[in-house]
Amino acid sequence: MYYSDQDFAEKVGDKPGNIRFFKKCLRDLGLIGSRQQLSDEYLEIFKAVSDYRDENRSTWEVAMESVLPRYVDQEDTKNDREILEEILAVLKRIEQKM
Predict the structure, then answer these.
(1) What are phi and psi of 3, to 5 degrees?
(2) pTM summary value
């Protein structure tokens, strides 16, 4: 089931503004698409962020920066880095030929 920001806020018992910030952070990390709504699978992630925030008395921003990277697929990150390194190598070869 997919939720609007307001519905998700009611489901987790938080403010819609915090949900919008949560969605922005998820988008920045590539965990959701630009127009994707939140579903039940994100309830657990939001709870983890909220728990971290409460336990460490931190801001939402710090909690999201600390918790959300755990959910990013490390293989994708590694592959992106490898691709960038290959591009850099090709650019260096092109520069040498000039």
Answers:
(1) -120, 145
(2) 0.70
